[in-house]
Amino acid sequence: MKKSLVIMATTLGLVSGLHAQDNVDKKAAEIVSKMTLAEKIGQMAQISIDVVCDGEDTPPTSTLKINNEKLREAIVDYHVGSILNAPNTRARTPEWWTKTVEQIQEVAMKETRIKVPVIYGLDQIHGATYTAGSTMFPQEINVAASWNPVHARKMGEITAYETRASNVPWNFSPVLDLGLDPRFPRQYEGFGEDPYIGAVFGRELIKGFEGDDNNVANPTKVAACMKHFLGYSAPISGKDRTPAYIPENVLLEYHVPAFQAAVDAGVHTVMINSGIINNVPVHASYELLTTLLREKMGFKGMIVTDWEDINKLYTRDKMVPSIKEAIKAGINAGIDMSMIPIDYKEFCNLLTELVNEGAVPMSRIDDATTRVIALKLRLNLFEVPNTYSKDYPEFNSKAYQQASYAAAADGITLLKNEGNVLPLKKGAKILVTGPNAVSKRSLNGGWTFSWQGEKIDEFADNYHNLLTAIQARFGKENITYVPGVSYKDVTEYATEYKDRFDEAVAAAKNADYVVMCLGENSYCEKPGDLDDLYLNDLQTELAQEMLKAGKKVILVLSEGRPRVISKFSSKVDAIVQTYLPGIYGADALADILIGDVNPSGKLPYTYPAYPNSLVPYFHKYAEEQEKSEGAYNYEGDYNYEYPFGYGISYTTFAYSNPKINKSVLALGSKDDIVISVDVTNTGSRDGKEAVQLYSSDLFASLVPDVKRLRRFEKVELKAGETKTVSFTLNLNDLSFINLKNERVVEAGDFVFQIGSSSADTNNKIPFTVK
Ligand code: BGC
């Protein structure tokens, strides 16, 4: 047996959370003690704004507005405590939001007995999604690709400000689900496949939303909502809201760290995974919601369900034989607020019956209501129930726009640049082709002024698409555009698109370069489910046709997940991954193509080469393992187009002089381990490099991962400049969760790897724990 040390008393150890029992909790309990059962249950109810709206939503002459009678029925008669969503999932102006939420607060604070303000929640994802004119950022996946957490902080600060400018104090963000599976339609909403990156960037985004001290009474801050707890992104099928099978030690090792970091960062609320793990719907899991999240992880904030998920315990999961039993299961598992979101009368009536019958204890209702009221107190909604758009002069200011541009420019990732074809020569004749060239949807993805991102054109007139940004930089006269294909299915449009192929190929003959803009249209959640991870047939065929023209071909990808491109990727000259770079993404891409910006993003996930090789970089078995063909080729499991952490630059970097301050430590030692390396910009342009430190446990009592990212830092280097980059860690960083679900460090040999990507094995440093 290996010598090992359990390094923390509880499963996760870090029981903390900002909001210890304090005056706010006492005050909340006092308020709750004066409430009737019906009033308490109302506080646990969240409805969609559509429930209290009337009219037709047909912009620009939409007649849609709140119906006061319906509003009163919900808030006065049923005591509903929370409202969410944008009507018809369409963005509204800050002024519209200010007025509408004010109207809701008027009723809640003047016409009810208890005068408790409503808490309004929105999905302000990658910027203030549902606020017209807001500063939309790149998606979380791009922010991770920047390897610079400053962008997460900025995105959080600006989104919070613009959300408060919309009179909304609560944001259903960040997504902390691990992006392990490129088939999953929400991979772009998170920070990629690595648990450590998720923890670091998630923390910064939360601090951006809530502030360093988590003082969300500050009217420029919002309460954050980490989601979707837990294991949402890892269903067997790769499709949204389908079953996952995840052992507890795996949940703790990979899925919990980002959520634990968020709890430690003081996050105020959490939303639950709509799926099923090990045949238990997470919304009915006492073990996950109460034992793990509350007791072991120390989360003290408020737990909200995802959309209609209590009802789904009955309607979808068939776990219980009625809605009433579903409500009982969810509330007893630990849910504080139900995003019902439509039939609130049923929820309120049935939960009242359950309490009266003793099936849901009053103590559970008091606990849940106290957490809701405490959240409203912390947001200072009792004193300041409204914030007004006119008080937010920085809304979509130049500085905010620049922050969004900077995040895009820092994240876009150059994957291939044969013969230094990029940057493109000024004055060159360029054919731009592919469906993404003229689509703002494909640059921004879902949650952009609408749920599926499909309404973006109503709101984003003033921004470039890829074509217009390229025209602006290279001169309109030098650019020809031929779409080639659309996203649609080849069988439906075969004849029409055959002609378009021919037109694109003919146009290529007159161009020096072909910039091929391929990828995905916008989507999120279920509508984004896929049957085939290959890039769609039409686009693949277009790429293959274009390559026959014999011109230099630059592939520009805009996609929410890495669609497989191996049918043609080896033949293109350059590949630039823009992910979903947001409202200034086209500008950033054009600046990279012309060379004004030196690309410095790196992949926050493994880019797979085949649909059956979907393994993250922290797979099992070392690279040194003897390779063999066919069924025994373990390393072939990890058959990537590009490895995790990979991205190149217009300059080159060299690593030298790797050092460690000590090569042996005794088990239990708290000493720092300091590892450094010299990084030199060996090219002729200034550039930025994300330096990455990995560790490998050579032998462990549970089969170890081949490597794990432990630290990273993005450094700026002038041409010719050398910097020493050093990282400090300790033995806890070498720990893992064992089969008893304990976090342990084991004695034995380790290797540190420091370099430019997960596949850069040039600088290795041995290390031993005795
Ligand atoms: C999504 C959540 C979102 C919620 C409210 C759900 O369908 O899964 O991420 O916060 O809707 O809009």
Can you describe this structure?
The chain is of the alpha/beta class and 770 residues long. It is built from 19 helices and 31 strands. It has a 6-stranded mixed beta sheet, with helices on both faces. A 5-stranded parallel beta sheet has the order 7-6-5-2-13. Bound molecules: beta-D-glucopyranose (BGC). The site of beta-D-glucopyranose (BGC) has 9 residues, from loops.
Question: Mean pLDDT across all residues, rounded?
Answer: 94
Number of helical stretches of at least 4 residues:
19
The largest sheet has its strands arranged as 14-19-18-17-15-16
Structural class: alpha/beta
Principal-axes geometry comes out as globular
- Give the proportion of residues in helices: 25-40%
Short description:
The chain has 770 residues and is of the alpha/beta class. The protein folds into 3 domains: 29-391, TIM Barrel (Alpha-Beta Barrel), CATH 3.20.20; 413-608, Rossmann fold, CATH 3.40.50.1700; 651-769, Immunoglobulin-like (Sandwich), CATH 2.60.40.
Keywords, separated by commas or semicolons:
3 domains; five-stranded parallel beta sheet; Immunoglobulin-like; single chain; 29% helix; binds beta-D-glucopyranose; TIM Barrel; GH; 19 helices; alpha/beta
